[in-house]
Amino acid sequence: MILVTGGCGFIGTNFIRLWLAEKNEPVVNVDALTYAGNAENLSDIQDNPDYYFEQVDICDASAIADVLKRYRPRAILHFAAESHVDRSITSPEAFLQTNVMGTFNLLHSALAMWNTQGQPDGFRFLHVSTDEVYGSLGKRDPAFTEQHRYQPNSPYSASKAASDHLVRAWHHTYDLPVLTTNCSNNYGPYQFPEKLIPLMIERGLSGESLPVYGDGNNVRDWLYVEDHCHAIMAVLEKGTPGETYNIGGNEERTNLDVVENLTNVLQMMKPREGGYRELIRFVKDRPGHDRRYAINPTHIRDQLNWYPQIDFCEGLRRTVDWYLSNRTWVDRVKSGEYRHWLDHQYRS
Ligand code: NAD
Ligand code: TYD
Question: Is the pTM of this model over 0.90?
């Protein structure tokens, strides 16, 4: 079986759902259920005999060692992290704890398990990271390759950069068969509505202002989450231990362009008198706001034959459709009810 950390978050949820639909192999989900972890995301598969859940903090060394001992996964896919840049600016401690110490703890425990098992060839530790570790690009700079120097600018990206370096060191020093992926901005179903796209959908539907930071000309490369999950599967299956793979959507867009596109899709699917565009407001910029991220996807395309299948227009349409069709999920996230789901579910 494989072990996924952070499977109750946005990307982990999509990954586990896709894995169980497409692969014939059990998965154990290790998640502490922070505010970003929603056990309800996977409530419909909780009785699937190929799905196991452990509510464990990756920083808890003995609990992680115990989980590894009981499940003996053939691969660890490490998604768990504190992931929101704005939160990292106001409260950085949790980012260092989970992203750095949590990753260290997992590596340490994974290495112990791998050594105890006689270092099986097929074992993999796949670390899911971000393009933000490379820092900010100018308008005409070439996109990030895997050789781009690390230049993280936010507490979030600095903590992810540190975790990438630990993963690299565990390969170089101890030969642990690691793989690292650095991905661009994801969007799609189950994304917590603090991130740009779901936040704008929800505020728009409520008739609230759509807050665009600064001049709205910061550029991100957008990738539909299902494409990201398939890329991770390809790296797990065919990636070379010790290598890094940049994953992007070939969809560089300014934030203003993203929000304007979103207002058009919303108007098509849920028409509002006067439209949604009039709700856009330019607000105070994020401190240290990176100007541009862009991924050069040549390596993963040439080595693993992976490229994104879902373009931005289609992905946005699917995303808005999902948020419109899953109002209970949204309401329970907004009210905080989702945090009590496990208690209700398992109360005797
Ligand atoms: P998320 O914030 O939606 O989910 C994080 C999950 O990790 C939650 O379920 C949370 O409960 C869990 N978690 C947090 N701290 C934990 C701990 N100490 N122990 C166990 N579980 C813990 O994040 P996401 O958007 O799904 O991102 C997943 C990974 O992908 C992260 O490593 C992130 O850095 C990376 N990434 C995200 C994006 C993006 O656009 N969302 C882009 C590139 C890379
Ligand atoms: P976000 O989804 O927080 O991802 P990241 O900062 O990791 O790229 O934000 C995406 C972009 O949208 C980023 O440039 C900041 C901007 N943004 C806004 O303009 N307004 C908002 O309310 C939010 C949450 C983000």
Answer: yes
